[in-house]
Design a protein that fits this description.
Two copies of one chain form a homodimer. Chain A is about 35% helix and about 20% strand. Chain A is of the alpha+beta class. Chain A has three domains: about 110 residues, Alpha-Beta Complex (Nucleoside Triphosphate Pyrophosphohydrolase); about 80 residues, no CATH class; about 60 residues, Winged helix-like DNA-binding domain superfamily/Winged helix DNA-binding domain (Arc Repressor Mutant, subunit A, Orthogonal Bundle), CATH 1.10.10. In chain A, the strands form two sheets. In chain A, strands 1, 2, 3, 4, 5 and 6 form a six-stranded mixed sheet that branches. The longest helix of chain A has 16 residues. Chain A starts with 6 loop residues before the first strand and ends in an 11-residue tail after the last helix. At the A-B interface, β1, β3, α1, β4 and β5 of A face β1, β3, α1, β4 and β5 of B. β1 of chain A pairs antiparallel with β1 of chain B. Chain A binds a DNA duplex through α9.
Amino acid sequence: MTPDVAALVAMTLDAVIVAVSQGRPRLLVVDEPGQLPALPSGPLDVERDATLELGLRRWVRSRTGLEVGYVEQLYTFGDRDRRPDAGPQRQVSVGYLALVEETEPPLDARWIDVYALLPWEDQRDAEPSPEEAAIRAALASWVAAGPDADVRRERAERVAVNFGPPWDGIRALERYELLYGAHLLPEWARDTGSPPPSVDTGIALRFDHRRIAATALSRLRGKLTYRPVVFELLPERFSLLELQHTVEALAGITLHKQNFRRLVERSGLVEGTGQRARSQAGRPAELFRFRPSVQRERPRPGVGVPYR
Amino acid sequence: MTPDVAALVAMTLDAVIVAVSQGRPRLLVVDEPGQLPALPSGPLDVERDATLELGLRRWVRSRTGLEVGYVEQLYTFGDRDRRPDAGPQRQVSVGYLALVEETEPPLDARWIDVYALLPWEDQRDAEPSPEEAAIRAALASWVAAGPDADVRRERAERVAVNFGPPWDGIRALERYELLYGAHLLPEWARDTGSPPPSVDTGIALRFDHRRIAATALSRLRGKLTYRPVVFELLPERFSLLELQHTVEALAGITLHKQNFRRLVERSGLVEGTGQRARSQAGRPAELFRFRPSVQRERPRPGVGVPYR
DNA sequence: CTGAATTATGCTCACTGGGAGCATTATAGG
DNA sequence: CCTATAATGCTCCCAGTGAGCATAATTCAG
């Protein structure tokens, strides 16, 4: 039972590099003529890279000039059909999540709105967007089109659990997979050679990269609640409203302003600097900074997002 | 920036197969003469296994006869030195967590107490065990032995955060890595050719398998709080005390009995069956069963473990 | 200079969920 | 019948959190 045999596979490291600006979460994609956008992706240098993460950092630096701060391994994708273009060799991708303060779009790459990829994940508006309404309608048809009562019940169940209420932001990946399984995504059509679906489900990426992006969003939303990762996306000093907008952008929901302030101040997550923000309209806000020692005081310091 | 190059690596699938019996969490290991125990590990069948998870299920079934229920990908380990025995080819392991009801130890394998591997992770006793006390003392020496004040402060910080109070069960992996970095584990000695440490830090496994086990424990403890995974480890019907003991075994802490009952009943996680447990001493307990529809009602149904 | 608009900040009130412990019930074994 | 043991029921208290009102400190239009 010991690994007398190991499979030889082709491995790449794919990065979901996330930033938040103007209240929108964004991720880095690269374009190639005549192709869908793709996540930045690079090889491991088997000789030089002592660890996978170092390999990721190395090629992200060399190809985009970005020095990423927070990096976390996401998931390893190795389905047989994930790269139908690539012949019989199994193509394995180790996906990583990286967080950066937004900078100029680096070489060859551009920032793209996460909710342009996954429009149904933005629940910040009271009313669902037209796209989301259409997707929900298409899901309802899919439920109704089940061949028998059992299948219909099971489909209804899955839609109810994943699309709420209550809305669970962390289920982003499951929602993506449900839409795939309901044949509502162009990726499904591409993978099976079927005609494309009629609903608009946002911008698709190449290969399974949109799925990787959904994985990243799920993970990031989860992490938010128990580790102080938001601060990786913010400048050293920020107002509480900037912090709140960043959290809201990632979580995809809106929060109560006064309560957010109370939560974040009383939890010891931040401390005031005495400085004031350059004021535009209204009372100028105090600038805060992250308070790292919170990690000594509270076991799981995060911004408790009330997914209801 | 697209993967024009992918690295060729040797990949295995390693499984942390967990069960709970007699109030102790256990995992499956395999022995080979003259070697430390190892996690069961097998290759991907590049042609037949459509997905990595199916590959794992296939070889676990064929080698151990176990049909695992819940399976979840844990992490991908690809450090250069993780398999110093294996030559220049990079050895990548995709670790999986699998949960089963405990059965007879299957072919060639045996169950081993998780806390025999990670003794400091069991915080159920009011008093720390002798091993744990020794480990804490060794950590204190390591802090004090830092070359300068900055290093000592940073070490003290890490020890304080990870070994509490407050105790955070989810930091099992970080604690393992801290002990490794403090040169208190035989794995470190083995990897660096140093003399073995003098403290007893529990049973080591081959390669980086104890680290993979620590990863599994961290993940499982986290999952417990927001997904109803405990029930994968229990029979169809169980008393609330059995449920509580299973949770406690995994979480490594004890819980207040009446409050646990209240939590688990009021949350809709279980429902009574009207049946009574075969009684030994004391009032016979009612048998409960998992109530799957809880997932439709509550976004993140789990057993909220109060790591303080 | 004044008032409206805008944003930050302070505070209260009600509710809920969880921590702790006391009380009662149902069984086995003598 | 009495005691030990475990299950179950219930209360009290407190911290956290959802909701909203009130006040402070600015900018900007007139």
